[in-house]
Amino acid sequence: MSWPEVKRAVEEQRYELVLTGPEIAERIEKDGLDQNIFALNCLNFLQISNTRLSSLPEDLGNLLHLKTLDLHRNSLQQLPSSIGLLRELKILDLSGNELKTLPSTLGEISSLQTLNLNCNKLTVLPELKRLTNLARLDVSHNQLGDLPQSLYELEHLAEVHASNNNITTLSSNVSKLASLKVLTLNVNSIESIPTELSLCHKLKKLDLQDNAIKDSRLAKLIKECHTKAILDYVAVGHEKGKSGEKSRKKGRNRKTSEGDTEKQKEGIYMQSGTMIRVLKSERFQVVVKASVQEIRPYIVCTVVKNLDLTDMATFKKFISIQTKLHDSVCDHRTLATIATHDISSLTFPLEYEGVTPSNVHLIPLGRHKEVTAEQLIADLRTEALKQKQRQKRSPFKTGLYKYLSLVQDTPLYAVVRDRNKTVISFPPVTNSENSKIKAGKLDVLLEVTSAVDLGTCKSVMEHLINSMVESGFHSSQETCATASARDDSAGGTKELIIEQARVVNSEGQLKVVYPSRVDLQFEAVKVLYEEKA
Question: Is this model's pTM higher than 0.85 or not?
Answer without folding.
Answer: no
